[in-house]
Amino acid sequence: MAYHYDDQNIFAKILRGEIPNDTVLETDHTLAFRDIEPQAPVHVLVIPKGAYVSYDHFAAEASDAEIVDYTRAIAKICAQEGVSIDANEGYRIISNAGAHGVQEVPHLHLHILGGRRMGRMVQPAK
Ligand code: 5GP
């Protein structure tokens, strides 16, 4: 089954500049911005600029340049936001995919959460 990407999703609109965002970092292939409803003192969303719906889609089909750019961006954001375990208290990265992952926005995004202890990794389903 081929991956289906809906270019009317809200992050596609952010990438096209149709909706504003609070940018944390922008590189050739990656945009990072603050979540509109932060769940922690640090809550950054990291998205590739390419049209990928989920992490597995990105991992399967993105170019090496996109994957390297995206991965290195995460290190820069963690350092910039003061959550890297190199010098600070750490963070949690989450990427929800599909129905079981309870993904709301169908454009790949990693959540970087930090600035407090996160508690249990997975809550019971509601
Ligand atoms: P998901 O459930 O898909 O993993 O997470 C989607 C995230 O996107 C949520 O944490 C939600 O608060 C965030 N979000 C939804 N719409 C917007 C928006 O227009 N701007 C920003 N910055 N974040 C958004």
- Counting helices, strands and paired strands, the structural category is alpha+beta
Question: What would CATH call the class?
Answer: Alpha Beta
Please trace the helix and strand order, writing H or E for each element: HEEEHHEHE
Largest sheet: 5 strands, antiparallel
Tell me the β content: 15-25%
What share of the residues lie within helices? 25-40%
What is the count of structural domains?
1
- Low-pLDDT runs: none
Sequence of strands across the biggest β-sheet: 1-2-3-5-4
**How many DSSP-defined strands?**
5
What is the third-level CATH name, the topology?
A: HIT family, subunit A
> Which ligands, by name, code or SMILES, are bound?
guanosine-5'-monophosphate
Give the overall shape. Answer: globular
**In the CATH hierarchy, what is the architecture at level 2?**
2-Layer Sandwich
Total helical segments: 4
CATH superfamily: HIT-like
- Mean pLDDT figure: 96
Please characterize this protein's 3D structure.
With 126 residues, the chain is an alpha+beta fold. The chain has one domain (10-114): HIT family, subunit A (2-Layer Sandwich), CATH 3.30.428. 27% of the residues lie in helices and 20% in strands. It has helices at 10-15, 55-61, 64-80, 98-101; strands spanning 23-26, 30-34, 42-48, 91-94, 110-114. The longest helix has 17 residues, at 64-80.
